């Protein structure tokens, strides 16, 4: 059962990471009016980076199966691992413009973290709503 849940969560995370990658690619293509080009396998590196980020956020979701951990610790582990992987990948593939100076680097990292935590929060609210529905059904069964 745990393997199935981790596979589902990881697949979902990969899908989200690749969707965001594609949407940002479209945005950049529009900003550069169709002249946005990538060289030296940059597209491949970035696509693989998006896969790495999807795995970085998806695989650690196994911690949510540990009922002896508080939600805060589970979230810290899950989002900590994912955020570290995301930041390393972002530097490695050139998504963080380090040549622009430390202010731009910090703003870029904070933006990426805001998106990651925003996605986590949406899933948190969804799961909380589902738990509430399950609890209501259980009360009706009593």
Can you offer a commentary on this structure?
The chain has helices at 2-31, 42-58, 71-93, 102-141. By secondary structure, the chain is an all-alpha fold. Helix 1 runs antiparallel to helix 2 (42-58) and helix 2 (42-58) runs antiparallel to helix 3 (71-93). The mean pLDDT is 90.
Helix count, per DSSP? Answer: 4
| H and E string | HHHH
| Rounded mean pLDDT score | 90
Gyration radius from CA atoms, angstroms: 18 Å
Task: Estimate what percentage of residues fall within beta strands.
Answer: under 5%
The total of beta strands comes to 0
Large-scale geometry: elongated
Largest pleated sheet:
none
Secondary-structure class: mainly alpha
Report the end-to-end length measured between terminal Cα atoms: 27 Å
Q: How are the elements arranged and paired?
A:
Layout: H1 2-31, H2 42-58, H3 71-93, H4 102-141
Characterize this entry briefly.
The chain is mainly α and 142 residues long. It has helices spanning 2-31, 42-58, 71-93, 102-141.
């Amino acid at each position: 059962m745990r393997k199935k849940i981790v596979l589902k969560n990881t697949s979902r995370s990969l899908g989200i990471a690749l969707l965001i990658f594609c949407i940002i690619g479209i945005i950049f293509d529009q900003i550069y009016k169709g002249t946005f080009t990538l060289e030296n396998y940059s597209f491949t590196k970035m696509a693989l980076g998006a896969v790495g980020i999807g795995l970085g956020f998806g695989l650690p979701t196994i911690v949510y199966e540990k009922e002896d951990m508080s939600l805060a610790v589970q979230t810290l582990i899950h989002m900590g691992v994912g955020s570290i992987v995301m930041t390393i990948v972002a530097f490695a593939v050139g998504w963080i413009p380090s040549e622009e100076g430390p202010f731009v680097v910090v703003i870029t990292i904070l933006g990426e973290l805001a998106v990651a935590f925003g996605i986590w929060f949406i899933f948190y609210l969804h799961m909380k709503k589902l738990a509430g529905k399950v609890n209501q059904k259980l009360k009706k069964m009593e």
